[in-house]
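Quick illustration for those who missed Monday's session on complexes.
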Amino acid sequence: MGYVDEVIERVIAKNPGEPEFHQAVKEVLESLRPVVEKNEEVYRREALLERITEPDRQIKFRVPWVDDKGQVQVNTGYRVQFNNAIGPYKGGLRLHPSVNIGIIKFLGFEQIFKNSLTCLPIGGGKGGSDFDPKGKSDREVMAFCQSFMNELYKYIGADEDVPAGDIGTGAREIGYMFGQYKKIRGVYEGVLTGKGLSYGGSLARTEATGYGLLYLTQEMLKCNGIDIKGKTICISGSGNVATYAVQKAQQLGAKVVTVSDSTGWVYDPDGIDVAVLKEIKEVKRARLTEYKNYRPNSEYHEGRGVWQVKCDIALPCATQNELLLEDAKALVANGCLAVAEGANMPTTLEATKYLQENKVLFAPGKAANAGGVATSALEMSQNSERLSWSFEEVDAKLQGIMVNIFHNLDDAAKRYGCEGDYVAGANIAGFEKVANAVLAQGVC
Ligand code: NDP
Ligand code: 2IT
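Prediction with NDP bound:
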């Protein structure tokens, strides 16, 4: 059995009941085959793939807090510090009832290669909790965030591990966590990113993941002779990534006709109204059922169904495994030209394969959604030099980073004889730098 298959088997055996982690490891390692074959002797002796698939450490802790009725609630907190070969651990905190160690490990593993692709000095980590912020009062969210930080503070720091937002963690949660860290540690440092603008946040961080997704998609289309202007786009999700993806797509002259949440989806033939979306999701924290009250021409559908709508470009921006084989078939049948992942691992392995076999341009999340963490790294730089840059300066840097990511993965795919396979290109380009750094730093 080859080295790659041996390591995949070992990861599955050592990490039972963690299907998302297995999926992420399989996707990465399968596409590293040509690199591994070229270096098999050294990689085996150095146990490189074993070291890269085993987190540096996994932290799990109790998070007790008191709800508005005076009842004590208990959640579980996690931080997986996966790999810091090229910089301090960096990655978001997910607050969602579905969170478990396997989900956090898949996200942390993806983050290693994503962060490497940005060409900025950040390692890979991820954390979160099974706490559900939905329907909680601000005081309850604050109580949870403070209790979460009462434990997490021991393991993080501006040069050590720098968490940020993800599903369920936005500016409000980061604010409460930053306040508690400062209170406990007595230091004012850039320990979290995605902070408010009045206390060390970076302009354009809120928009960065969605904007970056469109910058990379535009470059991928351009290099394949396609103009994004005038194209019809389907987007899933209606959170941070989806909202700013809609906004940038419209600025680039495309028409976005769908958004979704965990209960249903909206079709707006006239194009999604971003102001309405923000009002419903960011201000009211309400459901998409309300969208029709503002836009009578639109349709609301229960359940899933976004990928059945005819479009030129599909941008999954909600969560993992939300674009299935049947969806990929519908997209291909409807003439879809490109899929770019705003979310982490939203497309199943079978769906990805089907799209690629049918010549749909496919940009994987670790490249396409890297604009968020890249801008987080720019926030870290600003915090270190105690300055803040203008929106235009950060946005211009973000554009440069996303265009550079696309060319790096395109070049890597070409170097290994798989031109146009951007999944392989992203995995190879992300891996090469981390592998070199791990080997150079000895067995540690
Ligand atoms: P938000 O919490 O702002 O929004 C998440 C959106 O996805 C909501 O519309 C939510 O619906 C929907 N969603 C979440 N879980 C599910 C589910 N299990 N089934 C169906 N829909 C679901 O999160 P973000 O926009 O920040 O994150 C979206 C994706 O992008 C995630 O995969 C995240 O890891 C990834 N990402 C985020 C980055 C960032 O900077 N924020 C950076 C890079 C990637 P509902 O409101 O009903 O729960
Ligand atoms: O998945 C991701 O890249 C994020 N949630 C953003 C992480 C970060 O540190 O900004």
